[in-house]
Amino acid sequence: MPKRILTGTVTSTANKQTVTVQIVRRFKHPVLQKTIKKSKKYRAHDEHEQFNVGDSVMIRECAPKSKTKRWEIMTEEMIAEHEKQRAEVAAANLKAEAEAAH
């Protein structure tokens, strides 16, 4: 099963190797059709303590690192690898669609 990846803003760096990331999601209410904004905070592992409050970061699911940490901050290498995998999957899908059309 693929790991979930979320984008948010660092709100706290009070603990060692841990940052708190606030994720904001917007959706339309099913009945009222009004746009609603909800937020949730996640605690993420920051190995090298390189992020500060206000930084925009990507986090992904991982094995539990502590009682409350189930996420880790994605480094530049992780993001590049993720983008490469997405490109490969997109290319494979285009190829499959082209073959199905013939």
Verbal overview:
This protein is 25% helix and 38% strand. With 102 residues, it is of the alpha+beta class. The protein has a domain at 5-74: OB fold (Dihydrolipoamide Acetyltransferase, E2P). The protein has a 5-stranded mixed beta barrel with strand order 1-2-3-5-4. The longest helix is centred in the C-terminal third of the chain and has 26 residues, at 76-101.
CATH topology call of one domain: OB fold (Dihydrolipoamide Acetyltransferase, E2P)
Strand order of the largest sheet: 1-2-3-5-4
The number of strands is 5
Q: Write the H/E string, N to C.
A: EEEEEH
Beta-sheet strand percentage?
35-45%
The amount of helix comes to: 25-40%
Main beta-sheet annotation: 5 strands, mixed, barrel
End-to-end Cα distance: 32 Å
CA radius of gyration is 18 Å
The gross shape turns out to be flat
The CATH architecture classification of one domain is Beta Barrel
CATH superfamily of one domain: Nucleic acid-binding proteins
| Averaged pLDDT | 93
Give the C-level CATH assignment of one domain.
Mainly Beta
Low-confidence stretches: none
Quickly count the helices: 1
Class derived from helix and strand content: alpha+beta
Write a brief caption for the model.
With 102 residues, the protein is α+β, with helices and mostly antiparallel strands.
Task: Set out the fold topology.
Layout lengths: L4 E8 L5 E11 L6 E11 L10 E6 L9 E3 L2 H26 L1
Parallel strand pairs: 3-5
Antiparallel strand pairs: 1-2, 1-4, 2-3, 4-5
